[in-house]
Structures are given as structure tokens and as C-alpha cells.
């Protein structure tokens, strides 16, 4: 069964609003989780590494004030897209690592900003 | 040169065919290698980890060639359900933030 759960699966919002996406590790505690963005016909691009109890580490070019990450517990990381604009429309996916280094992904959240 | 490159695809093959995917990586220090499949509008799912000695799981065989810096995935007796995009993932180390995803190769298995 799934080891990472992501919610919501899809969301449509108006430009200028904020959207929160939740990512839960279901089978064990995760001190680190990862957030990706995937545009159509492109591969996954790492946006940031979410660290439990401390600040997230953002990849170059990702605005930390726009993509707020909170990892307040060992099983939950959230990504908030603030003041969303149409260009933020994308497929957002979270993941955590397994015991052998492999990545397990959440179901993904498809964001459409009107 | 991109860090991880894959066959551009798409591959369209009949059921029962054998299909091979290739992936090359630029960083010779890379340590972790995986194949994932991603169905349309879904998340990637782990297909196989790739070990130095090569490994097989049913109809799927993965191989690693460190000298030439490439990994391969072979699918035998392809099924309609194998239709998906196959992603090559390479890690500089075992830390997820240092994993790089290939662009993927799309496979369509035709009846």
C-alpha cells in the first residue's frame, strides 16, 4: 500500500489566493521529505527539502517566500503556494526516502490557477 | 551535457516484444540508481533499484555499467499494462536531495 499520502489530489484556485498541500508519511517517521514540481512533458524538478523542526532547504531559483514549507511533525510536511498565479499551475509531488535510499512519492497534487 | 539523459522515445511496440531503455549519467561519482515508471498524470512508482551486479525482477532486468556511466532496463514479453513513462533516477549519494531525474522515455505497448 501507499507509504506517502498527499492531499488534495487536485485544486483549482483564483489568482492571488494561497493553496496548502499536505504530505504525510504513513508507515514511519520522516525527518526529511522532498517537494517537486512537474510541468507537462517534463521530468520532476526538486523544489525544496523539508526538514522536521527546522527550515526547509530550497533549490536555486525557487522562491522561499512564495513556496512556504512547514515540517512540524515527523509525519507531516506542508507546502503552501502563496499568492498563486497561473504560471504556478503544475503537478506538485512530495516524497520521502525508504530504508534503502529509494524514493516513495505521494499521489501528487495538480494545481490549476485561474 | 545534461546530468541524466534517456532515449527520447516514444517507443511503440507490440505486445510480447522486448524493449530496452538506456540512460546515461554525467557524474562518475554517482552511487544510487533506480528505474521508476510514471503513468499519465500520476506519481512515479519505483520499478527497480539498480545494483552493480545487475538485477532481475520477473520480466524486468536492470544493469549498471559504471565504466560507461549508463544503466539499462530491459522489459521482456511486454504487456499493455507496461505502457507508461520510464524514468531513470541517479543519486550522487544516498541523500534524496541529490537525486537527479532523467526526462523519461514513454512506452506504448500496442495490442
Summarize the structure.
With 114 residues, chain A is mostly beta strands.
Defining key terms:
heterodimer; A: 114 residues; mainly beta; 7-stranded mixed beta sheet; 53% strand; globular; B: 111 residues; 6-stranded mixed beta sheet
Give a written overview of the molecule.
- The complex is a heterodimer of chains A (114) and B (111).
- Chain A has 114 residues and is mainly β.
- Chain A is built from no helices and eleven strands.
- In chain A, the strands form two sheets. In chain A, strands 2, 4, 5, 6, 9, 10 and 11 form a seven-stranded mixed sheet that branches. In chain A, strands 1-3-8-7 form a four-stranded antiparallel sheet, with no helix packed on it.
- Chain A is globular, with a radius of gyration of 13 Å.
- Chain B is an all-beta fold.
- Chain B is 0% helix and 53% strand.
- Chain B has strands at residues 4-6, 11-14, 19-25, 32-38, 44-49, 55-57, 60-65, 70-75, 84-91, 99-101, 105-110.
- In chain B, strands 2, 4, 5, 9, 10 and 11 form a six-stranded mixed sheet that branches.
- Chain B is globular and about 40 Å long.
- The model of chain B has no long low-confidence stretch (mean pLDDT 94).
- Chain A binds chain B through residues 6, 32, 34, 42-46, 49, 57, 91, 93, 95-97, 100-108, 110, and chain B through 32, 34, 41-46, 49, 87, 89, 91, 94, 96-97, 99, 101-104.
How large, in whole angstroms, is the Cα Rg of chain B? 13 Å
Largest interface: A-B, 25 and 20 residues
Unreliably modeled segments of chain B: none
Q: What is the succession of H and E elements of chain B? A: EEEEEEEEEEE
> Globular, elongated, flat, extended or rod-shaped: what is the shape of chain A?
globular
Beta-strand residue percentage of chain A: over 45%
β-strand number of chain B:
11
Shape of chain B: globular
Query: Span from first to last CA of chain B?
Result: 37 Å
- H/I helix tally of chain B: 0
Helix content of chain B: under 10%
Order of helices and strands of chain A: EEEEEEEEEEE
Q: Helices and strands of chain B: which structural class?
A: mainly beta
By DSSP (H or I, 4+ residues per run), the number of helices of chain A equals 0
Helix content of chain A: under 10%
Mean pLDDT of chain A: 94
Give the biggest beta sheet of chain B: 6 strands, mixed
Give me the count of strands of chain A.
Answer: 11
Mean pLDDT of chain B, to the nearest integer, reads 94
Task: Give the structural class of chain A.
Answer: mainly beta
**Strand percentage of chain B:** over 45%
Amino acid at each position: 500500500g501507499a507509504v506517502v499520502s498527499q492531499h488534495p489530489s487536485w485544486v483549482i484556485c483564483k489568482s492571488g489566493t494561497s493553496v496548502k498541500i499536505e504530505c504525510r508519511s504513513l508507515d514511519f517517521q520522516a525527518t526529511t521529505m522532498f517537494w517537486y514540481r512537474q510541468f507537462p512533458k517534463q521530468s520532476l524538478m526538486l523544489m525544496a527539502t523539508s526538514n522536521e523542526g527546522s527550515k526547509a532547504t530550497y533549490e536555486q531559483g525557487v522562491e522561499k517566500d512564495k513556496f512556504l514549507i512547514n515540517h512540524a511533525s515527523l509525519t507531516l510536511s506542508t507546502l503552501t503556494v502563496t499568492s498563486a498565479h497561473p504560471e504556478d499551475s503544475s503537478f506538485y509531488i512530495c516524497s520521502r526516502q525508504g530504508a534503502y535510499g529509494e524514493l516513495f512519492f505521494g499521489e501528487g497534487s495538480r494545481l490549476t490557477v485561474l | 551535457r545534461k546530468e541524466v539523459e534517456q532515449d527520447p522515445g516514444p517507443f511503440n511496440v507490440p505486445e510480447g516484444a522486448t524493449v530496452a531503455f538506456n540512460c546515461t549519467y554525467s557524474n562518475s561519482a554517482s552511487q544510487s540508481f533506480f528505474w521508476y515508471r510514471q503513468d499519465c498524470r500520476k506519481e512515479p512508482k519505483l520499478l527497480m533499484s539498480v545494483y552493480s551486479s545487475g538485477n532481475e525482477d520477473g520480466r524486468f532486468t536492470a544493469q549498471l555499467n559504471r565504466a560507461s556511466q549508463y544503466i539499462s532496463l530491459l522489459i521482456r514479453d511486454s504487456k499493455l499494462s507496461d505502457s507508461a513513462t520510464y524514468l531513470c533516477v541517479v543519486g550522487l549519494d544516498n541523500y534524496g536531495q541529490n537525486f537527479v531525474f532523467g526526462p523519461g522515455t514513454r512506452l506504448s505497448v500496442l495490442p
